[in-house]
Amino acid sequence: MNEELIRHLEDTYMANVYHKRPVVVVKGKGALVWDINGKEYIDCVAGHGVAILGHCHPKVVNAIKEQVERLITCPCTFYNDVRAKLVEKIAEITPEGLNKSFLSNSGAESVECAIKIARAYTKRKKLIAAKRGFHGRTLGALSLTWKPEYREAFTPLLPYVEHVSFGNEEALKDKMSNEVAAVILEPIQGEAGVYLPPDGYLKAVREICDDYKTLLIFDEIQTGFGRTGKMFACEHWRVYPDILCMAKGIGGGFPIGVTVAREEIMSALKPGMHGSTYGGNPLACAAALAAIDAILEDKLYERAGRLGEYFKVKLIGLLNKYSNIIREVRGLGLMLATQLRFAKVPELILKALEKGVLLLPSGRTIIRKLPPLVIEREQIDRVIQVLDEVLGDLIERGSELSTRASEEV
Q1: What is the tally of helices (H) and strands (E) in the chain?
Q2: What DSSP letter does each residue of 165-214 carry, written as one string?
């Protein structure tokens, strides 16, 4: 099929729920992808952070090949060897005490499970999430997600859910009571534009939850598995949850979600109270085991810390050069954002795509970078060069920089 036909078929037969970009991606290796015409791109989207090992990592590919010839599916009503190895490995690498896993297929599913665990264990109904937070688009996860445009068409959502400002412990205290089952947070707010918590905030949240015997859930779907320079972002602040939600990078590109909790908490779910037909299938488990092993053996979390600092310094250099356009650079590890002063992100992302760099938007004022942890310095340099070129071009063309973004934070 040619490019025109592929785009026509997707536009005709797929639900129109994605902001499509004019490129047909057909191949990937490491931090690079190629389109149907053979054009090469540096991929700082990486499947919205999924391809944490890069595309087609050989360990993951080999694990999938071997497993697909042995057994593809096996429901959790039976035991399975590769699943047993994975849940043991998860208990080894997650923060101490988190030793019971539920396996699903996505980040949203891992959050849905966390909601049910929290309510079953505490016998309470209320949930508190953060403004700007993103936890998924299924109805339960969407109830915790903040962005009104994601929510409004689907109300009424789950009752007894409230949102408080991220980073404001006093706002949380005002909403807390003995009726709150759980507080759920992303340690770093990713989809919103890579917002880090203020110093001491996560520790204060942990203490507030302890005071009310409320569970603390960390959504590390985007921040986990080395993305921020630690295996899990919460390790930077040495604050640990009662329930941890994981997905994206754990599968090395293959769909899998995991909800892990302390044994006494997970034990609130009895047989029949929750389940997933595809959850824990041997193919996903084999991919996840290979991905985790690659991250640990190659210490990719340390690499993410080093390269993330290098990338961030380069981005700050662009801020200094284009301070009339760039408001702020922020992030940790290879989870980075550039916030502009004006609503030019969609335009800049398309210009960067033309020059062979794929970038993520967050609204109309923030450019996110979630490259694979295997990205090379030379590739980072090329990304910076392209950003320099498109920002410079924006100035040369005398764009309407006085137009303020309605979504500016």
Answers
A1: 14, 15
A2: -TT-HHHHHHH--TTEEEEEE-SSBTTTT-BPPPTTHHHHHHHHHHHTT-
Alpha-carbon distance of 112 to 367, in angstroms, equals 29
pLDDT score recorded for residue 398: 64
Residue-level pLDDT at 399: 47
pTM for the model stands at: 0.95
Instruction: Catalogue all structural domains in the chain, each as residue range(s) with its CATH number.
Output: 3-57+299-396 (3.90.1150.10), 71-297 (3.40.640.10)
pLDDT at 77: 97
Pairing mode of beta strands 243-246, 215-219? parallel
The catalytic residue positions are: 134, 219, 248
Mean predicted confidence (pLDDT) in 235-258? 98
End-to-end CA gap in the chain: 43
CA 379 to chain centroid? 22
Query: What's the length of the chain?
Result: 409
The phi-psi region of residue 304 (left if phi > 0; otherwise alpha if psi is between -120 and 50; otherwise beta) is: alpha
Rounded CA-CA distance 365/345 in Å is: 5
Tell me the torsion sign for CA atoms 308, 314, 319, 320.
positive
Query: Which tokens go with 43?
Result: 């991929």
The DSSP secondary-structure symbol of 55 reads: B
DSSP 308-343: HHHHHHHHHHHHHHTTTTEEEEEEETTEEEEEESBS
